[in-house]
UniProtKB/TrEMBL annotation:
The keyword Chloroplast does not apply. Keywords: ATP-binding, Nucleotide-binding, Transport. One of its GO terms (molecular function) is ABC-type transporter activity. Residues 4-240 form the ABC transporter domain. SMART domains: AAA. It comes from the Bacteria. InterPro entries: AAA+_ATPase (IPR003593), ABC_transporter-like_ATP-bd (IPR003439), ABC_transporter-like_CS (IPR017871), ABC_transpr_MalK/UgpC-like (IPR047641), Mo/tungstate-bd_C_term_dom (IPR008995), NA-bd_OB-fold (IPR012340), P-loop_NTPase (IPR027417). The lineage of its organism: Bacteria, Bacillati, Bacillota, Clostridia, Eubacteriales. Transmembrane segments: none annotated. This is ABC transporter ATP-binding protein. It comes from Dysosmobacter segnis. SUPFAM superfamilies: MOP-like (SSF50331), P-loop containing nucleoside triphosphate hydrolases (SSF52540).
């Protein structure tokens, strides 16, 4: 259990400013995922927390104890930070069995043989690899080796577990199983976890909070639900969600405190309580972007009041879900249904969209101005 507080962290590699004023608090017991596209600074942040990198500016505390104070050139040794790190490349010792790979660090801590055995076997069972305890790493698949690396980190009962893309070598099916195991592990150990990934599904499924990065900056820190339902800007909206969110241009104006929006979906008025406190023009018309999740668009083959007449451009039933491309004039939207639903291409249908679920962004600033409710 640990609480980590990063304040005003800047990291440069030469003239390359890779972390820009990072302020992030990870509460005791959080499963905090650092998420973002390749090269945005997730791994560097993890390396700063672990002590493998020294930031040029900023401070960090773990449970109130200062670990970094760049002004005083103070950086606590990695071994003094009470954490354990699992990298994407899991570096198991090739000449030791799985059992010994895990026991080694515990022996150094001078634990009793019985305690070592209990911890090794518990962590192997937790990662479902106890049957491989006498094998050598070369006798395991990449995914099994990755699980040994996690078991090794877990066995030392760290207060803080840092995981850098630990599921990257697993096939799709095992990845789902391991997501479930990591979620259980977090609950059972109660450990604070910081987890790096560029995979939004991993982030949305396991985390208690997600820190979304954009080019060295923190863009949004929120629960998975809030990040998915109300991405803070158009970049976040576009990054989160699969299939991607539908974006549609419109015009907006604030009239009597309410937001009046016009687009190819028609005209709508949103009450003041759905608007964010972000600054946006309080008078005159301005450009906006409507963002609608594909699963918020329902298709009716019969006319429905308030629904938008559209044609079926493409229809992709794929077992558990169906993705359908709809056309309204020159606008194209994706709609997502559960199950296998077939439409004829060019069939005329009606799209039903719950206005409350639409996010609206200021096109110029790209910031969220109307929340989904
Ligand atoms: N040792 C280094 N020297 C110079 N530049 C570096 C070094 N390590 C990282 N960088 C640069 O810092 C930036 C952030 O890298 P980082 O590894 O933190 O990104 P990331 O978000 O973890 O990406 P990925 O998902 O690809 O691992 C990148 O532009 C990278 O090229």
């Amino acid at each position: 259990m640990s609480r980590i507080e990063l304040k005003h962290i800047d990291k440069f590699y030469g003239s390359n400013h890779v972390l820009r004023d990072i302020n992030l608090t990870i509460e005791d017991g959080d499963f905090m995922t650092l998420l973002g596209p390749s090269g945005c600074g997730k791994t560097t942040t993890l390396r700063v927390v672990s002590g493998l990198e020294k930031p040029q500016n900023g401070t960090m505390t773990i449970d109130g104890v200062e670990m970094i104070n760049a002004d005083d050139a103070y950086y606590a040794e990695p071994s003094k930070r009470g954490l354990n790190l699992v990298f994407q490349s899991y570096a198991l010792w090739p000449h030791m069995t799985v059992y010994d790979n895990i026991a080694f660090g515990l022996k150094i801590q001078k634990m009793s043989k019985a305690e070592i055995d209990r911890r090794v076997m518990d962590s192997l069972r937790m990662m479902r690899i106890d049957m491989y305890k006498d094998r050598y790493p070369t006798e395991l698949s990449g995914g099994q080796q990755q699980r040994v690396a996690i078991a090794r980190a877990v066995a030392s009962s760290p207060k803080l577990l840092l995981l850098d893309e630990p599921l990257s070598n697993l096939d799709a099916k095992l990845r789902i199983d391991m997501r479930a195991e990591l979620q259980r592990l977090h609950k059972e150990l109660g450990t604070t976890i910081i987890y790096v990934t560029h995979d939004q599904t991993e982030a949305l499924t396991m985390s208690t909070k997600i820190a979304l990065f954009k080019a060295g900056e923190l863009n949004q820190v929120a629960t998975p639900t809030e990040l998915y339902n109300n991405p803070i800007d158009l970049e976040a909206a576009d990054f989160i969600g699969n299939p991607r969110i539908n974006l549609l241009d419109g015009k907006a104006e604030v009239i009597n405190g309410q937001l009046v929006v016009k687009s190819d979906l028609g005209g709508h008025t949103f009450p003041a309580e759905h608007l964010t406190s972000e600054e946006f023009p309080k008078s005159g018309e301005f450009d906006c972007v409507l963002a609608i999740r594909p699963e918020q668009i329902a298709i009716s083959t019969q006319p429905v009041e308030g629904a938008i007449p559209v044609t079926i451009y493409a229809n992709q039933p794929a077992g558990s879900e169906t993705i359908t491309t709809l056309k309204a004039g020159t606008d194209e939207f994706l709609a997502k249904d559960i199950g296998q639903i077939r439409y004829d291409l060019d069939q005329k249908v009606w799209a039903i969209i719950d206005q409350d679920k639409i996010n609206i962004y200021n096109k110029e600033t790209t910031r969220l101005i109307k929340r989904a409710v």
